From TrEMBL:
Keyword Kinase: no
Superkingdom in the source lineage: Eukaryota
GO biological process, one term: negative regulation of transcription elongation by RNA polymerase II
GO cellular component annotations of the record: NELF complex
Main localisation: nucleus
Family stated for the protein in its record: Belongs to the NELF-D family.
The protein, known as: Uncharacterized protein
Annotated source species: Rhizopus delemar (strain RA 99-880 / ATCC MYA-4621 / FGSC 9543 / NRRL 43880)
GO molecular function, one term: RNA binding
Length: 146
């Protein structure tokens, strides 16, 4: 799936983008974040400061935590899957999901959706979400193509 450019129209929105947690890790942050911020009057030094101050390193923390869990003989993959599943079920917003799904016309080729559907753990999660949100277009589509 081809990445979409960030759609930002004001200098303040560019600044918000650069200050989001771990913005430095976003795919288009250099071209669509930093350059646009500078083109709208922001200074390069301020852009670097905003990015460095917003960096927390969540992916790195997850890796360190997983290594620690594995080192005591537990299965970090299983624990992480359960935690993500629980959070997904608690925070799933069918309206927001459908808004994105209906806006993105490339949904027929969602490669990541195929991966989820093939995994029995995530497929079961989709079934459970569909029971809770039977009118969710995205979930109905996902189940239909499975």
């Amino acid at each position: 799936m081809q990445s979409q450019p960030l759609r930002i129209s004001t200098p303040e929105e560019h600044k918000k983008t650069l200050t989001q947690t771990d913005a430095l890790l976003e795919q288009n942050i250099y071209n669509d974040g930093i350059l646009e911020y500078i083109n709208h009057g922001g200074s390069p030094l301020e852009a670097v400061n905003l990015l460095s101050e917003s960096y927390i390193g969540i992916p790195s923390m997850c890796n360190v935590t997983a290594a620690s869990v594995d080192s005591v003989g537990l299965d970090s993959d299983s624990i992480l899957r359960r935690a993500i599943r629980q959070q997904l079920k608690e925070r799933f917003d069918p309206n927001r999901c459908d808004d994105v799904f209906m806006r993105d016309k490339s949904h027929i080729t969602f490669a990541w959706l195929d991966v989820l559907i093939q995994d029995s753990h995530w497929r079961q999660t989709m079934y459970e979400l569909l029971e809770k949100y039977p009118s969710c277009s995205f979930l109905n589509f996902a189940i239909l193509v499975s």
